[in-house]
Amino acid sequence: MEQELSARMAGLEEKVTALSRRTERLEKGQTALNRLATAVEVLATKQESMGQSLERLNEKMDSLERRPGQRWESLADKVLLVLAGAFVSFLLAGGGT
User: Fold this and answer.
1) How many angstroms separate the CA atoms of 91 and 84, rounded?
2) What is the rounded (10 degree) CA torsion for 56, 58, 63, 66?
3) What is the pTM of this model?
4) Mean pLDDT score, 11-18
């Protein structure tokens, strides 16, 4: 009976030792997983910030790309106004007669 209890006790001690090792490995894995989750969260925050910065840059680029076209349109408007003014002046001055 005593040998049986001793054998059972030895088996239980082995199981406890094995479970202790497994628990330590799981704790290390959990720590690594927590670090990874934190890193992913930081990356997501930075990515969101970068997305907002890119949107602002796109708006600025669109504005810069439109600027030359707006200048040409403005110049064309001014040229047409000058020509119209010259034509009206020509007509008012006698129209070539």
Assistant:
1) 10
2) -170
3) 0.51
4) 94
